[in-house]
């Protein structure tokens, strides 16, 4: 396995060109957040905005409108009961992130299906959290157009890939990722990423991160990074590394690292680790 | 009486094992927060998350969903009018905290009864605030399955134990705690904890803490500590001590210490006081 | 006129006795905040909590419940459409603050009347903002039981006292305050306080404070101070001075001082200026 | 073209006179924020308050009431479905800002028409965001009474002026601005301002600002500056410069600058750059 180290950061995080505008940094649309799991989509949206995406829209349950804006007036909101309003936004997005706090009920499944139907070539589609469970439990297949990025933890990967956790070797994981024609970010103590017929192992990460919402934050970061940076697979690796490196930094002083703290640390971290 | 000192911290707060995940740190479910007392369950939930619980779910009045997520996107939410959705979460919890801001009306009583009916061996059940008043005023008996932890202030203890405040000697308190087969955390200037047939007296605490919400925060911390640490009675003592020690620190510069500040100080405090 | 200087702080802000509890520091109930002016009652409530009141309850329009708890989980909430739930709380309060953002419509008038009817000897009643306008425009008379503290700016004082701003001399102001048997805090560049047949002039204050919400914050501070400190008239003077002294401190670095920043500065300021 | 440099700051930002009150610093009314774009009006309102406007009222969709107060208890709120309540406030305003997050539907158009109908001589009317798109797409003409300030980005300016982005030379822009009898703030990498028959080019600005909400923040700052400072055209230039200068400062340490951070930096920035 290749190692993911801090070198990926300066490779990916370019200095911003002086003559640029928000359109230069992409549009991220995030779909998730039921009445029960609204915090998840807030955390993912925070990560997308604080990593520098140009424009972020969050499609969620109406009960999450206020708490989204309390954290993030920078994001736009669409009620997922008015999904027809979200459709043109998803179509125009550089990256779609679906899953954080989406839930697994009938409504969630419909949102997933409609999103899969919209996703198209040139777009990145990040599939996280309950969207992975839905994918595993349904007869849905991944859309063939976009660059699909799956971000399961080991149990979700078992559901999606059929490989039991004990059998999740790099080779076995890569075989399924290749078959799915997707990038697979398999989260654990040392996260592995299957892409371009390679398996990469992350070298950062701390048990202080072992708390709810970490995965939502990573999904949002992958959204923010792939929206901005031209080399999409490298951007996934950089997001994975940055997420754990920030946690490692915070864990020098904290017993537990809160997911929203990682997002709030992104602007300074990315400044310190951009290309010269 | 034994004294609770800073030694309990390094005894309880272990270094986190590298290869761990959020499941390692337990699931806390908190039940409380009426329309009038929503802040109480928010403060308790903050304490549970910031002390490092792996997963936290808050079961509360629907009007508290947004303010919970404004403080804490890391927590999940269940409307207590849909208690059937909370039941599997309570059943799967490592720790249930019931009481902060619960109120004492008929609905509150029903929530308490249904929670008591679910709590089972292997779980910790923290009973705080209005749940103690309900317990005292009703014919409810404590569930026999879980490790019950009662966190009354002196007047609530009078209601539960029948011992008048003036007569709350360590011996009298211990006798009732033993009879209830519960850990009793009797909050006052110098909080006393009855457990394992011993009475422990806390050595920390400041009058700067004398403000609404301190007890809710302690209940949430007991939830977070017992969810993570194997020795449950010791975890209760560590939470009691940490709560007062953080307040003592903040009171060096503050005339009054706000409860939410204690929670927000937990990650650094616990880092500084973990086992070597 | 006597001057209000920093001496009032150490005279009033006592060191907290070790063996005290939240009941020692009083109960403040605040009534205000219509759908349009919810921020005002939030700012007043913040000031009451951050100045150290033991227990704070906010009685406001239901649409302000969430934003109150977003700022202040430490406060309890009562919907002012269920004023019967507020009545026992107002009756048990050490201090009632009425007016911040109350509005001047029929509902506001009814809330004022019902509050006046409840206020009784031993209590402090702080009357601020739109409650002063209502008082001036209606045939209401101040309740005879409580210690009434009026906190008008100059135009509101004109409405209440009938004295035009140009004619608001210390003597004229004192005559009306005596006649009303109330403490009058007449806010301006140099706030004057009529009490105990004396006029006191504040020596602090900065034009950086000239922004909406400053008065609401002062009303809440008067609530918090009179709830805790035995000498109620001196507590009013101390609140007036502290409010301006904190603003003066912040204005050394800020062009404008936001009201909520004054409240958030209270714990450190009061710690630094308590009695030795 | 003239350059806008830091000299404009000390020219415009006066030391506040000691004997002043909130009325001295003007009233700003902001109209915007649909259910989808509530964050935009929050960011604009933040900028108006933090730049020192005396009184700020936000007229928006009812679903934005809570999130506005979560950020800004200092602002008052009017539901835009009760626009008759907003009308006296708009009439009494020193400055009206319309457009941030307003949307372009029929309701938005009606709000724009009613605001145009109210705006009158002596007032500043800042027209931003979707209000510019509505203006371009409708047969509305700018009101003749107020000082109109348009704040388009280049595409919005194309819609309003009919000049394609490639053809937006200073001369062409000025000709249309003169014809509209408006100040035009044309936002880009180097923002240009057409006023008093001159074109001014801003010398600050960073690609770290290229994120959603920057324009809303600038519109609110123009509102806050023109409300306080006597020379309205100079105040527009000072707001434009300050907005970019704060971003430049923050970008020394941040890869991306969040719009709300600019507003929160205003009190210290303006203190440091006021007239001696």
UniProtKB/TrEMBL annotation, chains A, B, C, D:
Its EC number is 4.2.1.136. AMP binds at residues 187-191, 215. Its cofactor is Mg(2+). It comes from the Bacteria. (6S)-NADPHX binds at residues 40, 101, 153, 216. CDD domains: YXKO-related. InterPro entries: Carbohydrate_kinase_pred_CS, CARKD, Ribokinase-like. Keywords: ATP-binding, Lyase, NAD, NADP, Nucleotide-binding. Residues 5-273 form the YjeF C-terminal domain. The keyword NADP applies. It catalyses: (6S)-NADHX + ADP = AMP + phosphate + NADH + H(+); (6S)-NADPHX + ADP = AMP + phosphate + NADPH + H(+). NCBIfam families: yjeF_cterm. Catalyzes the dehydration of the S-form of NAD(P)HX at the expense of ADP, which is converted to AMP. Together with NAD(P)HX epimerase, which catalyzes the epimerization of the S- and R-forms, the enzyme allows the repair of both epimers of NAD(P)HX, a damaged form of NAD(P)H that is a result of enzymatic or heat-dependent hydration. Belongs to the NnrD/CARKD family. Homotetramer. This is ADP-dependent (S)-NAD(P)H-hydrate dehydratase. It comes from Lentilactobacillus fungorum. The lineage of its organism: Bacteria, Bacillati, Bacillota, Bacilli, Lactobacillales. The gene is nnrD.
């Amino acid at each position: 396995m290749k190692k993911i180290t801090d070198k990926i950061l300066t490779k990916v995080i370019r200095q911003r060109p002086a003559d640029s505008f928000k359109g230069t940094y992409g549009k991220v649309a995030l779909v998730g957040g039921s009445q029960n799991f609204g915090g998840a989509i807030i955390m993912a949206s925070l990560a997308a905005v604080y990593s520098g995406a140009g424009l972020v829209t969050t499609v969620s349950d109406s009960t999450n409108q206020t708490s989204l804006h309390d954290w993030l007036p920078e994001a736009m909101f669409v009620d997922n009961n008015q999904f027809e309003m979200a459709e043109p936004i998803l179509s125009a997005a550089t990256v779609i992130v679906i899953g954080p706090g989406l839930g697994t009920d009938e409504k969630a499944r419909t949102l997933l299906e409609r999103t899969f139907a919209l996703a198209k070539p040139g777009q990145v589609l990040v599939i996280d959290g309950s969207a992975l469970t839905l994918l595993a439990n349904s007869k849905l297949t991944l859309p063939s157009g976009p660059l699909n990025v799956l971000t399961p933890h080991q149990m979700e990967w078992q559901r999606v890939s059929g490989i039991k956790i004990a059998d999740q070797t790099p080779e076995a994981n890569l075989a399924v990722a290749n078959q799915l024609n997707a990038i697979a970010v398999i989260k654990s103590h040392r996260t592995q990423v299957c892409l371009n017929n390679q398996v990469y192992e992350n070298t950062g990460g701390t048990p202080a991160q072992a708390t709810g919402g970490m995965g939502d934050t990573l999904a949002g970061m992958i959204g923010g990074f792939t929206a901005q940076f031209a080399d999409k697979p490298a951007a996934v690796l950089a997001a994975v590394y940055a997420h754990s490196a920030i946690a490692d930094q915070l864990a020098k002083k904290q017993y537990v690292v809160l997911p929203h703290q990682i997002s709030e640390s992104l602007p300074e971290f990315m400044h310190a680790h951009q290309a010269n």
